[in-house]
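Severity: low
Component: inverse-folding endpoint
Summary: output formatting inconsistent between runs
Steps to reproduce: submit the following structure tokens with default settings.
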């Protein structure tokens, strides 16, 4: 897991370009499953915890 990817995924999710989790009917890209929890925590706290 790479810190820069966590930050990048957080940016695109916050910008509403990607979804954090799959949403039925959505055509947006989705954060890979192995990064979802870390990205969610990063978006809430601003800290990356591995």
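Observed output (run 2 of 3):
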């Amino acid at each position: 897991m790479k810190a820069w990817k966590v930050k990048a995924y957080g940016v695109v999710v916050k910008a509403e370009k990607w979804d954090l989790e799959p949403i039925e009917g959505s055509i947006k890209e989705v954060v890979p499953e192995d990064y979802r929890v870390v990205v969610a925590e990063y978006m809430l706290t601003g800290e990356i915890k591995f």
